[in-house]
């Protein structure tokens, strides 16, 4: 099933925000901030990765394969994640029965989490060094 139009629209708005931050009207960003924005853009603009997400939402079998051997699935599909980014399938509590696809990377002790939730689409957030 294709990614729902609303989820695509929200993703596109978020990516436009990252592009705007990088062009920041001549005000330079710190290298760390620029790295975060560029990494998020690479993830969100990777059409092969978006196709994987579509398949993940539709296929419990693919979710299991991603959980047990995600690197092989990525390799077989020719998907290369940006440097330092890892991917995992996350199962939430019983109130959220469908697994999430999570991409994680770190910048200066902060952990960036980018989740694809089949119910609501993409969500990106930052965790401090002592947060789980």
Written account of the structure:
This protein is an alpha+beta fold. 47% of the residues lie in helices and 21% in strands. It is built from four helices and four strands, in the order H-H-H-H-E-E-E-E. It has a four-stranded antiparallel β-sheet. Helix 1 packs antiparallel against helix 2 and helix 3 (47-58) runs antiparallel to helix 4. The longest helix has 19 residues, at 5-23. The termini are far apart. The model has no long low-confidence stretch (mean pLDDT 90).
Keywords:
132 residues, alpha+beta, four-stranded antiparallel beta sheet, 4 helices, 47% helix, 21% strand
Topology:
Blueprint: H1 5-23, H2 31-44, H3 47-58, H4 60-76, E1 86-90, E2 100-107, E3 110-117, E4 121-127
Antiparallel strand pairs: 1-2, 2-3, 3-4
Helix pairs in contact: 1-2, 3-4
Order of helices and strands: HHHHEEEE
Q: Nearest-angstrom radius of gyration?
A: 15 Å
Biggest beta sheet attributes = 4 strands, antiparallel
How large is the count of helical segments? 4
List unreliable stretches of 5+ residues. Answer: none
Brief synopsis:
It contains 4 helices and 4 strands. By secondary structure, it is α+β, with helices and mostly antiparallel strands. Strand 2 and strand 3 (110-117) form a beta hairpin.
